[in-house]
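Sample intake sheet
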Amino acid sequence: MDNNRRGVTRRRVLLGSVPVLLPTTGCLGSLDADDSDDTGGGDTQFEDVAVLGTAEPYSIAATPEREYEYLEDDEAVRIEYDDSSERTMSFDEWGRRRATAAAADEMRSLLSDEGLADAGASMGVIERDDIDESRTSRDPDPSLFDREVDIGVTVAIDYQYGGEELVREPETDFDTLVESIPPYIEVTMLFEERNYTADVPILCWKHYADRTELDDV
C-alpha cells in the first residue's frame, strides 16, 4: 500500500484482540438490507455473509471536510446543512461521524489501489449484533463497538441469483476481499479545537440479490 497516497499519514497498528471471523449468515438489517430473509426470499441456498476483514489494521490522520461551529461551553458543534436546517451534537459524536467518513474514503481508495473495483464502501449502522458470534473464532472485542454512535464502514460485494442458480458473480473473490480489508482502522481527526481518535470497524459484506426482484423494479 502506498503510505503517501493522498497525503494521508498512516502507520501500522497491532491487531490485538480484534477477532478473525468465520462466515456468518446474519440478516444485516441495520445495514439497510431487506427486512425479509437474508436474500429477500424464503427458501434459498444463497445466504449473505458478513465478516470483519483480516488484513493488518493501520492508522490514518485526516482533516474535517465539512464546516461546523464549535460551541465551547457545551462541548458541542452545530452544523448547518444546504437546506438551511441545523443540527447540534456533542463534539465526540461529531468526531466519530467525521472519522467514519474519513475511513469510508480510505476504503474506497484502498479498493481502487488493490484493483477491487466491483466492491464498494459506504457508511452505515454497524452493531455487534450484526455479527453471528456462533460463527466466530472468538468473541468480538467489545471495545470496537463501544462508540458514541453505532456507525462504521461496510465494504459490500454483490452477487445475483435467480431461483436456485447463481446468475452473476463479481470478478473479485470474497475471500480475496476479506484478506485485503482490515477489521478496523484507527482514524485521528485533526480538528482545530483538539484531535479526536477512533477505531472504526469495517465489515465485509457478501450480498446476494434476487435477480427476479431486481427486474421488477
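Comment: Residues 74 and 90 are 8 Å apart (CA to CA). The two ends are 39 Å apart (CA to CA).
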